[in-house]
């Protein structure tokens, strides 16, 4: 009788289908252990730059393209 392991053929650990990581708390703990401060800062910077562009760019051609992008993303502007 063989026992199941939680390691794939390339020796990478697998994520259990249920259990501790299948909760919000478990996912937050997993993210805290996996996301580096540099990646978190980069993500915040990208979101801030895109948010600034979507909200404050008023060049007509760029504004219209961003306006259409907002609608395509599901944001109701008016």
Q: What's the N-to-C terminus distance?
A: 65 Å
Tell the overall outline: elongated
Low confidence ranges: none
Treating each run of at least 4 consecutive H or I residues as one helix, how many helices? 3
Tell me the fraction of residues in β-strands, as a range.
under 5%
Total strands: the figure is: 0
| Sheet/helix structural class | mainly alpha
Global mean pLDDT: 77
The secondary-structure element order is: HHH
Radius of gyration: 21 Å
**Largest pleated sheet:** none
Helix content: 55-70%
Quaternary assembly? single chain
Organism: Halopenitus persicus
Keywords: Membrane, Transmembrane, Transmembrane helix
Pfam families: CbtB
Protein name: Probable cobalt transporter subunit (CbtB)
Keywords:
3 helices; elongated; 0% strand; 78 residues; mainly alpha
Can you give a write-up of this model?
The chain is mostly helical. The chain has a domain at 24-73. 56% of the residues lie in helices and 0% in strands. The protein has three helices and no strands. The chain has helices spanning 24-34, 37-56, 60-72. The longest helix has 20 residues, at 37-56. The radius of gyration is 21 Å and the shape is elongated. The model has no long low-confidence stretch (mean pLDDT 77).
């Amino acid at each position: 009788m063989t026992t199941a392991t939680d390691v794939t053929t390339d020796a990478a650990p697998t994520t259990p289908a249920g259990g501790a990581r299948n909760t919000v708390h478990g996912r937050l703990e997993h993210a805290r252990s996996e996301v580096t401060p540099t990646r978190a800062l980069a993500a915040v910077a990208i979101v801030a730059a895109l948010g600034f562009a979507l909200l404050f760019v008023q060049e007509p051609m760029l504004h219209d393209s961003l306006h259409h992008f907002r609608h395509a993303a599901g944001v109701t502007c008016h």
